[in-house]
Amino acid sequence: MTIFDAARFRELWQRHDLALGSPLTVLGTATSTNDLALEAARAGAAHGATFVADQQTEGRGRQGRRWFGAAGESLLFSCLTRPALRTSEATSLPLAAGLALREVLSRHVPPDVVVELKWPNDVLASRKKICGVLVETQLQGSQLAAAVIGVGLNLRTTSFPDELLGSATSIVALGGVAPEPEALLLEVLLELTRYLELVQKSGLPALAVELDRHDALKGRLVDIDGLKGRARGLDPCGRLIVVDELGVERRVVSGHVILLDG
Ligand code: BTN
Fold first, then answer.
1. Which residue out of 4, 34, 123, 153 has the highest number of ligand 1 atoms within 8 Å of its CB and is therefore the one to mutate?
2. Would strands 221-224 and 227-234 be described as parallel, antiparallel, or unpaired?
3. Binding site membership of 152 for ligand 1 (Cβ less than 6 Å)
4. How far is 198 from 187, CA to CA, in rounded Å?
5. Has residue 1 been placed in a domain?
6. Residues 42, 121: one domain?
7. Which domain holds residue 171?
């Protein structure tokens, strides 16, 4: 028996015309759902295959970090997508996924909680991380063969490990009511589909207004792997614009952002 109820998800899923979410694999414990999805991608699985775990023994985040998630306290899943995008457009995927998750989460936290995107792929609620996205790709020449979108979303965690104290939160910790995980996954997949379609049709510019509106970094003092400066939004390629301490404008492709002003 798993905590995530596959039959319940399928019952909800079949009411929609949705490619993401099928076939669905649910495990009580996985090493990492991203690993399962990447393996499936290599074996030729189709767009939409989705892997959910109640808990992970080797859950990972960006830049080799570990991803913490106690059983039943978070929604942990990875979705295998095969978007019609060039390799050079892959940077739009974490941003599209982040916006999809931001949209869904904003429906489940109390109305006074601001839900924002922390470039490149964290979702913050009341300035604390509530959700992380890890996109891992497989390439075929200049085209994307597969993109695995892995999501860890904190539902009801109220006690975090020491290193996350003060920087992480969950729907319940914010005073919200944790939704049924099966219904939440469906909501996320519907939004993810909408944002993926936008990006495939019109590219990153289609997300520019929303990225700007929900940018948690704009105007803030940041340190990105040693580069200190003030964030000035994203450029049309999804790079973070930072004006450094000498007033020079820099464009950052990827990195870990630390907020220096609280
Ligand atoms: C980050 O914040 O650095 C990204 C975290 C992504 C975590 C999720 S949990 C489900 C999937 N499986 C993993 O091993 N990682 C992602």
1. 34
2. antiparallel
3. yes
4. 17
5. no
6. yes
7. 6-213
pLDDT computed for residue 54 by the predictor: 97
Let me know whether 132 and 98 are in one domain.
Answer: yes
150 lines ligand 1 (CB under 6 A): yes
Q: Does some domain include residue 30?
A: yes
**Model pTM score:** 0.96
Clarify whether residues 239 and 128 are in a common domain: no
DSSP H helices in 16-158 = 33-42, 92-106
Ligand 1, atom 15, lies closest to the CA of 60
Question: What is the token pair recorded at 222?
Answer: 């940041």
Please report, for the domain that includes residue 28, its CATH number.
Answer: 3.30.930.10
* Among protein residues, the one whose CA lies closest to atom 1 of ligand 1: 61
**Do residues 195 and 121 touch, judged by C-beta distance below 8 A?**
no
Question: Cα(20)–Cα(157) distance, rounded to whole angstroms?
Answer: 27
User: Could you tell me the distance, in angstroms and rounded to a whole number, from the CA of residue 61 to the centre of ligand 1?
Assistant: 4
Q: How far is the CA of 170 from the centre of ligand 1 (A)?
A: 15
Cβ atoms of residues 19 and 48 within 8 Å: yes
User: pLDDT in tens for each of the 262 residues of the chain?
Assistant: 999 999 999 999 999 999 999 999 999 999 999 999 999 999 999 999 999 999 999 999 998 889 988 888 999 999 999 999 999 999 999 999 999 999 999 999 999 999 999 999 899 999 999 999 999 999 999 999 999 999 999 999 988 888 887 899 999 999 999 999 999 999 999 999 999 999 999 999 999 999 999 999 999 999 999 999 999 999 999 999 999 999 999 999 999 999 998 7
Q: Given ligand 1 and candidates 60, 102, 148, which is best to mutate, with the most ligand atoms within 8 Å of its CB?
A: 60
Pair 127, 240 in one domain: no
